[in-house]
């Protein structure tokens, strides 16, 4: 799909046209060179990230491990009006709204 020259990843015009077709995107002739350059730069950056040395680095379960997040207390701000709402419904059964069958 793309050609590699050293550590630089470049997409061809045809590659971007194929990607646009698969994504159902309409890209004008004027926009095409911009997409080729931008997508090639993104792929080059991803390849650069993949080359980063990660041996011996333990994955983090949470970025703020060992720190405390200040969270507000959970408070009920609305009361339960389910019975009142269901009283207006044309058909209710076991706490669920019954609707007419649309697909048979």
Describe this structure as you would to a colleague.
- With 104 residues, this protein is of the alpha+beta class.
- The protein has a domain at 1-52: Histone, subunit A (Orthogonal Bundle), CATH 1.10.20.60.
- Helices cover 34% and strands 10% of the residues.
- It contains 3 helices and 4 strands.
- The protein has helices spanning 13-22, 32-50, 82-87, and strands at residues 3-5, 8-10, 92-93, 96-97.
- Strands 1-2 form a two-stranded antiparallel ribbon. Strands 3-4 form a two-stranded antiparallel ribbon.
- Helix 1 (13-22) packs across helix 2.
- The longest helix has 19 residues, at 32-50.
- The two termini are 44 Å apart.
- The model is unreliable at 1-7 (pLDDT under 50).
Biggest sheet: strands side by side, in what order?
Answer: 1-2
Looking at the structure, the CATH topology of the domain at 1-52 is Histone, subunit A
Range of helix content: 25-40%
E-strand count: 4
- Kindly report the average pLDDT value: 86
Q: Name the CATH class of the domain at 1-52.
A: Mainly Alpha
Give the helix tally.
3
Write down the secondary-structure element order: EEHHHEE
Decide which structural class fits the backbone. Answer: alpha+beta
CATH homologous superfamily heading of the domain at 1-52: Glu-tRNAGln amidotransferase C subunit, N-terminal domain
Radius of gyration: 27 Å
CATH architecture of the domain at 1-52: Orthogonal Bundle
Strand content: 5-15%
Oligomeric state of the chains?
single chain
Please summarize the sheet with the most strands: 2 strands, antiparallel
Shape summary: flat
